[in-house]
Design brief:
This protein is α/β, with parallel strands linked by helices and 554 residues long. The chain is 24% helix and 24% strand. It binds adenosine-5'-triphosphate and magnesium ion.
């Protein structure tokens, strides 16, 4: 079936067929001022995807032109995240700050062409002169200063002769343009600040709207894909690359951001969650930072599927977390081994099973994927089952263990509940049952009615470990924010199960290795808190899903 092409593919097709460009070159241009989140994944995968699809090139470029906010530590985490998503920039890693000299030269050329001038208006005055949507702006009193004087002043700005805010360099475009971005935008400002890459070499820095198109043009980018908020800046983008004289200037195309319903993505909010100790860092498994998703157990494949299902369009829309969860289930369903793990243990004693005996029972690793083979599971007289799989006094339609009822122990035998022990507080401490040796692993029970199947684990040899269960960090009922724009936190976003019991072979599982714990969901080995031989598990998702794939073929 022919894949439906989204509007960016259609635009690229058009550009190639009309000979506007003869190849495709894209980039992902993060500002190294924070961690990447699921929204950035859309941009990364789109940019990389277009380069791949059209046999073109893909650059990773750090847009590090703003010395106040940037930190080198983010460079490493961003590289890790982009690589993990599979967007391979090969040897095409760039830093916008490496172009400061070239950008300065372009600015000088603009001055020489009479297309830029040094302004002595303060920031407030620039704003005042700019006008409004209804009223045109007023010309800057410095607008007609001579080219020679502009060149001299700009050079002095660079040399550090002036204080922050004392002067700016403005593009000379049109103070009455209906597009406010075109009303002589500031393209250089003075900032006596150290830069993580260039140190103290510069005390003037280019503004984003001037720097970004030049970065694209210097690198030979053809299609500069960015999000919708830059649509109004496109005329300025085009002005900059045209005035800078590029023969094959890049073309900006805007697409809608990815939004997730009921999910916190704002840097400011996440920073506060980290500072308040509510999460254990930017990679907390409850966050939708790429690092958090990775630690939670999401795979690059699942994120790719999610971005694909969310679609590329110019219309803003919001995706559901349930769809992201659907994507990881789809990915892990055929890949993950299904093993037995008990999260809330209750002792089950099989009174008629020989003491001290261990039997090895075969368990298929993944009924939907034969290639994963099978393994042997230990069985014996004392097991753990889930607390909730026994009820002294069950309601109707409860098919699990209760006095007198028979259930199937997954991969093992039928057992019938014959009693239970309680402590002085009335808490059930053990359940007693008898087993029927004739029912081993699905044999000899034709025609016999057993409605419940429960999982179990042999008590003395199971691996005891910690498992963490998650809910949304915000309270979905109340909404993400309260009236004061603070987060409505969900007090139950993290539940730590300290004594879980799992099949002992998982003690050697590596970080990020994922399993299905039957009936309990998909779990991954936490990369931060697991110790050699003692994994800590994060629940990625439960097995239940309310999500339905939207109708295809739109
Ligand atoms: P800031 O508010 O600090 O600018 P940012 O999220 O825009 O944060 P950038 O590093 O500027 O961070 O973003 C890099 C790229 O990712 C940009 O091209 C931006 O348009 C894109 N991007 C950011 N958020 C989303 C999103 N939710 N969906 C799709 N693309 C996004
Ligand atoms: Mg940005």
């Amino acid at each position: 079936m022919e894949k439906h092409k989204h509007f960016i593919e259609q635009e690229i097709d058009k550009d190639l067929s009309e000979g506007v460009y003869d190849s495709v070159h894209t980039r992902f241009p993060p500002e190294p001022n924070g961690f990447l989140h699921i929204g950035h994944a859309k941009s990364i995968l789109l940019n990389y995807g277009m380069a791949k699809e059209y046999n073109g090139k893909f650059n990773l470029r750090f847009d590090d032109t703003n010395p106040t906010k940037e930190k080198s530590e983010f460079v490493d985490s961003i590289k890790e995240d982009v690589a993990w998503l599979g967007a391979d920039w090969e040897d095409r890693l760039f830093f916008a700050s490496d172009y400061f000299d070239k950008m300065y030269e372009v600015a000088v050329e603009l001055i020489k062409k009479g297309k830029a001038y040094v302004s002595t208006l303060s920031a407030d005055e620039v704003r005042e002169y700019r006008g409004t949507l209804k009223e045109p702006g007023k010309n800057d009193p410095d607008r007609d200063r001579s080219i020679e004087d502009n060149l001299k002043l700009f050079e002095e700005m660079k040399a550090g002769k002036y204080a922050d805010g004392e002067m700016t360099l403005r593009a000379k475009i049109d103070m009455s343009s209906p597009n406010i971005n075109m009303r002589d935008p500031v393209i250089y400002r003075i900032a006596h600040l150290s830069h993580h890459n260039t140190g103290d070499k510069w005390c003037i820095y280019p503004m984003y709207d001037f720097a970004h198109p030049l970065e694209d043009a210097f690198e030979g980018i053809t299609h500069s894909l960015c999000t919708l908020e830059f649509e109004d800046h496109r005329p300025l983008y085009d002005w900059v690359v045209r005035e800078a004289g590029f023969a094959h200037p890049p073309r900006q195309i805007e697409f809608a951001k990815l939004y997730l319903n009921n999910v916190v993505t704002g840097k400011r909010y996440i920073k506060k969650l980290v500072e308040d100790g509510i999460v254990d860092g930017w990679d907390d498994p409850r966050l939708v930072s790429i690092a958090g998703l990775r630690r939670r157990g999401y795979t690059p494949e699942s994120i790719r599927l999610f971005v694909e299902l969310s679609g590329i369009s110019k219309a803003n829309s919001t995706s559901e977390m349930a769809m992201l969860e659907y994507c990881i289930r789809e990915d892990l369903k055929p890949k993950a081994k299904r093993i037995m793990a008990v999260l809330h243990p209750l002792k089950l004693i099989i009174d008629n099973y020989p003491e001290g005996k261990t039997e090895m029972l075969k368990a298929v690793n993944n009924p939907e994927n034969e290639e994963l083979g099978s393994r042997e599971v230990e069985f014996g007289r004392e097991l753990y089952i889930e607390e909730e799989d026994f009820m002294e006094d069950p309601p109707k339609k409860y098919f699990r263990l209760f006095p007198g009822n028979e259930v199937r122990l997954m991969n093992a035998y039928f057992v019938k509940c014959v009693g239970f022990d309680k402590d002085e507080n009335g808490k059930i401490t053990a359940v007693h049952c008898t087993y029927d040796p004739a029912t081993k692993q699905g044999e000899g029970f034709e025609g016999r009615k057993v409605k419940g199947t429960i999982h179990w684990i042999k008590a003395d040899t199971a691996l005891k470990c910690t498992a963490r269960l998650y809910e949304n960090i915000v309270d979905e009922e109340k909404g993400v924010y309260d009236d004061d724009k603070n987060l409505n936190l969900n007090p139950n976003s993290l539940t730590v199960c300290e004594d879980c019991y799992v099949e002992s072979f998982v003690k050697d599982a590596k970080a990020y290795e994922s399993f299905q714990f039957v009936r309990n969901g998909y779990f991954t080995v936490d990369s931060k808190d697991s110790k050699e031989g003692a994994p800590v598990f994060n629940r990625i998702v439960s097995l239940k899903s309310s999500f339905k794939l939207p109708e295809q073929g739109k």
